[in-house]
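# nightly structure sweep
# worker-07 picked up a monomer target from the shared queue
# config: single-sequence mode, recycle default, output format = structure tokens
# input follows
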Amino acid sequence: MMLHALLPRHPVPALNVPLTSGGRFVLGAAPGEHFDLVVFYRGLHCPICAKYLIELERLAAEFAQRGVNIIAISSDDEDRGKQMAEKVKASGLSFGYGLSLKSARQWGLYISESRGKTSIGIEEPPLFSEPGVFLVRPDGTLYYGAVQTMPFARPPFQDLLGAIDFAIAKDYPARGEFTGPV
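# output follows
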């Protein structure tokens, strides 16, 4: 199966998921001034995800100061999504849940099968998406994207803040959009 690659400066797939705090997150309905930061995580079973999202929560105000809305989304059900939000002590970070695997594929995310219980004793779902981090412009086009086959070595959020500062200050265009022959 060929994975779908998103292209910078082109529209991203629709995204509409329920929030653990109630209501829904609909990408583009109320975009950040500069970007929406969409962080797809594996689920409650992933201790590396929890650590990563704790760091994002710690930096939530920094992103907000830069005109960036942030959301963390998984294919977990509502209960597991709420447990992760509680684990992260989410206040500046919104949590979406119930991402369909079809939608995950549209975003170019890798899908994994359950390997049973993880190191923290939580059962993996039968199928779940691997991580992805995306910056989406208010016009719904992709600015930055990173997808992974594993939970390890993710883009550091502190580095992303620096990149956002540079992009805003220099009006730096999205890169990687060339699709012609090579």
